[in-house]
Design brief:
With 126 residues, the protein is mostly beta strands. 14% of the residues lie in helices and 36% in strands. It has a single domain, classed as Trypsin-like serine proteases (Thrombin, subunit H). The protein is globular.
Amino acid sequence: MFYDHEEGKAYGEYPKKFPMYANKKQCSDDDIKLGEPVRVYGYPAITGGYALTITDGVVSSLLIDEGLIITSAKISYGNSGGLAVDQNGCMIGIPSMIIGDENESFGVIISNDIINEFIARLELLK
């Protein structure tokens, strides 16, 4: 059970283990396509950062040169660093920010390609 000492509230059971999404057969093809369903998991500030939220959307745009995926799935402040998965539950990237105007907003996901490139560069520094 998670207990917020400042608020004096209990928030139910908090899982100590999370399911793994790495099914190599199902997740071997990383080619994400426009219109494909996307699900975003995170702990946004709007919930106090304590409650897991799940939002659904589609791939709205692909910024290939930047390695970014634009989605209609809601991403709120505090969702950054969460998990974005495709319709098979395979990781496609990490939610990072929102972009928008006064009427609408889109979520921005850092793609697996950029994440893997970053990890490879870190390993070279070892």
